[in-house]
């Protein structure tokens, strides 16, 4: 239904609109979107066994599309709209023309820009969850899981930490661009869902080689470069804090990659490409809650720690702790996102620099890293900040374990959470009727696809007979 002309804006560039900020925010949002499609679509489709390439990449593509419908339908306002509870906003559509063309709740640009920017963050969160479930989750279950999880988990975390009305935001938590809201959430939820879905076939768990490492690097590159928008868009403006956030992001990431690579070479005697990608991801995740709040030297320290601590939890602790070994987290989302996200959140509470905090949070003296609080004789304020950071970790952990578990239990009442043994043995062809690569002869695998010309003709003849 269109609005009366009298209710619509009278000019395309109202006085409150800053074209520079608006342009950057739209670019940043698109960079984040490219991290999912095609970034994670390519990464997931290439880092798995050939028989899972289509299913893995399609889980990411579907999640991105479903997230947008849910987001504009009700989830945006549940995350950033009118308060219903201290941890959740009131459901409402984000499609009202008058509202979308008016100024958003932050920044000097339209609400439509903010809806789009926050959508790509919501979408990549659920796409990351897919990484823990690749190789055995029933696609029908995934179709149901995505909108339920975005509705009942993501919105609560986003409202509590990022909305000005959220209880953790009011308490003074520091999460610059989503270390808690996105990465800790996706890591814990992916790990929890992996528990309920169960493990892959023993054959797949024992040997799961990438089908195309060159494409894995291409997907990883899109993820890395796209993070300029991920962290650079967090200040809601094309300002000096955005520039610092982008530089810190790349410095931390490069350091983390090199540390992970060095550990692989020292322990396993070979420079692993997949290992380097893991180190890249942990660096990106770790700096996310701190990107515009810390100085460059702190970003390097964070890179050193994000390249070593998640490496240790993945390569050493995971093989020794029975509980971790029992849960089949296909792409180690728990280590690369939950562990790195927690680490980044804690380090933000240590290295958050007061002057940089003011650039982002405004003139509120509560925001101070423990290291600076000790230097300035404000130890109580520093420990308070660390306490708030740990409270945020605990809240996100409990929220996602509980909500993800409830969703998985409910979904399996409708459809199986897990593929059949036969489907897991065959992979893409059994699930989608399609293969990623026609490598046997002249397109033989495509001849058996549901979309091949021959199969299409058979289908048409069947319809005509009916």
From TrEMBL:
Topology with respect to the bilayer: Multi-pass membrane protein
Annotated Pfam families: Ammonium_transp
Ammonium transporter AmtB-like domain ranges (all copies): 24-437
Protein keywords: Ammonia transport, Membrane, Transmembrane, Transmembrane helix, Transport
Transmembrane segments: 24-47, 59-76, 115-134, 141-164, 176-198, 210-230, 242-261, 273-291, 297-318, 330-351, 386-415
Record-level GO cellular component terms: plasma membrane
Location (main, coarse): membrane
Hydrolase listed as a keyword: no
Example of a GO MF term: ammonium channel activity
Localization (cell): Cell membrane; Membrane
Keyword field contains Transport: yes
SUPFAM superfamilies reported for this sequence: Ammonium transporter
Described function: Involved in ammonium transport.
PANTHER family tied to this protein: AMMONIUM TRANSPORTER (PTHR43029:SF11), AMMONIUM TRANSPORTER MEP2 (PTHR43029)
Similarity comment: family membership: Belongs to the ammonia transporter channel (TC 1.A.11.2) family.
Protein name in the entry: Ammonium transporter
Protein species of origin: Dioscorea cayennensis subsp. rotundata
Higher taxonomy: Eukaryota, Viridiplantae, Streptophyta, Embryophyta, Tracheophyta
Gene that this sequence comes from: LOC120284064
């Amino acid at each position: 239904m269109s609005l009366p002309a009298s209710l619509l804006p009278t000019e395309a560039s109202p006085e409150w609109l800053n074209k520079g900020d608006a342009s950057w925010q739209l670019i940043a949002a698109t960079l984040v979107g490219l991290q999912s499609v095609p970034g994670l679509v390519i990464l997931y489709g290439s880092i798995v066994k050939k028989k899972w390439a289509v299913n893995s990449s399609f889980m990411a593509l579907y999640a991105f599309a479903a997230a947008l419908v849910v987001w504009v339908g009700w989830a945006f306002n549940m995350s950033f709209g009118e308060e219903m509870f201290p941890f959740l906003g009131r459901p409402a559509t984000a499609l009202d023309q008058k509202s979308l063309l008016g100024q958003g709740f932050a920044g000097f640009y339209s609400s439509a820009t903010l809806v789009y920017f926050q959508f790509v963050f919501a979408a990549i969160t659920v796409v990351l969850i897919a990484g823990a479930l690749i190789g055995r989750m029933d696609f029908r279950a995934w179709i149901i899981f995505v909108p339920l999880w975005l509705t009942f988990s993501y919105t609560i975390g986003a409202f509590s930490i990022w909305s000005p009305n959220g209880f953790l935001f009011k308490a003074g938590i520091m999460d610059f661009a989503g270390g808690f809201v996105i990465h800790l959430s996706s890591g814990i939820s992916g790990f929890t869902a992996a528990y309920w879905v169960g493990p892959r076939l023993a054959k797949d768990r024992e040997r799961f080689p990438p089908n195309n490492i060159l494409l894995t690097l291409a997907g990883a590159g899109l993820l890395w470069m796209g993070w300029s928008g991920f962290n650079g868009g967090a200040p809601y403006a094309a300002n000096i804090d955005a520039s610092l956030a982008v530089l810190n992001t790349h410095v931390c990431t490069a350091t983390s990659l090199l540390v992970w690579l060095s550990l692989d070479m020292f322990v396993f005697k070979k420079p692993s490409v997949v290992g380097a990608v893991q180190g890249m991801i942990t660096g990106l995740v770790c700096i996310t809650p701190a990107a515009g709040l810390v100085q460059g030297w702190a970003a390097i320290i964070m890179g050193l720690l994000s390249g070593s601590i998640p490496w240790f939890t993945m390569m050493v602790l995971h093989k020794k702790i029975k509980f971790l070994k029992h849960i089949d987290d296909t792409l180690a989302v728990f280590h690369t996102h939950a562990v790195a996200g927690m680490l980044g959140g804690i380090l933000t509470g240590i290295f958050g620099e007061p002057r940089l905090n003011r650039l982002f949070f405004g003139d509120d003296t509560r925001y101070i890293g423990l290291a600076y609080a000790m230097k300035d004789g404000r130890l109580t304020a520093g420990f308070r900040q660390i306490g708030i950071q740990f409270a945020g970790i605990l809240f996100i952990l409990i929220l996602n374990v509980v909500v993800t578990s409830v969703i998985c239990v409910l979904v399996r009442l409708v459809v199986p959470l897990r593929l059949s043994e036969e489907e897991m043995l065959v992979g893409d062809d059994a699930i989608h009727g399609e293969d990623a690569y026609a490598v046997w002869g002249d397109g033989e695998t495509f001849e058996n696809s549901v979309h091949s010309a021959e199969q299409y003709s058979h289908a048409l003849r069947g319809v005509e007979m009916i």
